[in-house]
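Notes, Module 5: Reading structure tokens.

Key idea: the token line is not a picture. It is a compressed description, and you learn to read it the same way you learned to read a sequence, by spotting repeated patterns. We will look at two proteins. The first is printed below with its tokens.
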Amino acid sequence: MSKPIHLLRRGQCRFAVTPHSAPSHLFCAEPVEHEKSSYCAHHAEICFDRRSAEQRRADAERAAIAREAMRKPKDATYGPLLLSRLGIDTVSEDAA
């Protein structure tokens, strides 16, 4: 549904979806999040990240740990520190 800027209407997302150097510079054009927004909900979230710097760092750390865990062999076991950093409860099955 992407469109060049001159074809966008009121209420359509103005987030650029092609590089500025592209022969045809296109914009999202999905319905905007609300009347006073220039962006759809998805692009507003990208543009206006409301998380604190601490939360962004924590999220980035969890994502990096998860990516690393995905590269491990399927039969690998993960220690409690890794699991707690991923937010996974480490209660053993014996205690349950």
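Here is the second protein, with the sequence above and the tokens below, as before.
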Amino acid sequence: METLNVVEEDVDGTLVLLTVEEAARRLGVGRTTCYALIRAGELESVTIGALRRVPAEALPEYVARLRQAQRRTFLGAAA
């Protein structure tokens, strides 16, 4: 009987800089959307030579800004 080996993607929580693909995966969005967020200045990124990287701490900061904006919108609509 053949056994299928399922390889779980290794998410290294110690990484300081993420590739755009890794950042997109963690946010649950596509790579193109992640690049659009970077271009719009909504998601911080840095370049190292020709490489574009997203600081790991930029992800929770981005999510916190989204949550804050949605709370303001919700509270404004409730008034």
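Summary for the second protein:
- Residues 17-78 form one domain.
- The chain has one domain: 17-78.
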